[in-house]
Amino acid sequence: MTYFFPSGFEWGVSTASYQIEGAAELRGRSVWDTFSETPGRVLNGDTGAIACDHFHRYRDDIALMAELGVRHYRFSISWPRVMPEGRGAVNEGGLAFYERLVDCLLEYGITPHATLFHWDSPQALEDRYGSWRSREMAQDFADYATVVVGRLCDRISHWMTINEIFCFTHMGYGVNQVPLHAPGTTVKTAKETWQTSHHALLAHGLGCQAIRAASRQPCSIALVDNFLATVPFAETPEHIAAAQTAFHTTGTNGGIVFPALTGEYSPLLLERLGSDAPDIRPGDLETIHQPLDAFGFNVYSGSVVRAADNDQGYETLDFRESYPRLHMPWLWVVPDGLYWGVRHISETLNRPDLRVFISENGCAAQDEVNSQGEILDLERIFYLRQYLQAAHRATAEGYPLTGYFLWSFMDNFEWAWGCDRRFGITYVDYSTQQRIPKASFHWYADCVRENRVV
Fold it and tell me: Is the pTM of this model over 0.90?
């Protein structure tokens, strides 16, 4: 079978500001600076202070991107680089960097897709009011969005508000334990954590309004989320129904993607949360449920569900240690998670109108440079090929999947794992900042050139 994608399918790559830019001395502090400088929080004591030094090397990196052949690049803008205190004064040097970056992309015929927030919130707002624990954060985010879009809207028409709300709220605020992500705040109840993700949803809603008000040209606005796709054990009516029911209460789906795309928290989730549900003020859900032009789905794995004779009507199956997994504890290989995630948006959430793109997909592998100077990351090619075949299935069945952004263009600072885990199709030697395209880089270039899975 040949896996050709529809004409006009958008092939791209993704990165994020804190993970690649470096040049920390030229911006305000973020919560990830503080978190990574705290002993014991990040593997090997790594920080994003230098990372891939992309701030100074962006021209060479974009030239390499052009060599790859992609025509779309998803990157994020650093809030503390633009507004060092999170509000008020604007850092002209920070905005000028993003102008240069986008101008360079456009020179190479690469369309910029900008994410306004990818976890690196200003430390100043954490100090001022506890960042996402406060409703003030939502308005400050909208004000920041207004500044960025006002400056860059003549160059950028594809905007994403926020990346993966779950990861900087539910993984950043731990109930009676130290969480794995910044700001690394311990809270006493699950309700406090759910309140942070509610505030992030408000920021998304207010951010959508701010983008539309500030942009002087028509633009596309998306939310990006890594909801957990529930995959039926077998594609029979009873198991499909079980996967659709499970979608409500798996992970944080019912409290993030549901309100954003349907205007309501899942009733099944609210019933399960009880008194731990967040406080929702009148008008909040209307603010959160803004019209979107597209939805970005970050997918790496999936959750396998089968029908069961219990109160829930389903059960989630555990992966055994022998099940295929790549170089992260959670990176189980579940290609059908991509297909079913796209299908859940159209069917379970009843949004067949909403265009979807894969905003991140990729894997960490144990990459090493061999004696010939090559990185033969065959396991990454194995992984990507299967996920792209699942993407092809979604398009072939008529679901509105219109693009694919591989994570990541290059190895980078991988949050609490520091520089130890490599997700890139370009190898980065952090001691020299040398870039070496991996075998997967050349394989993906063939996919892009031929518009199919090779």
Answer: yes
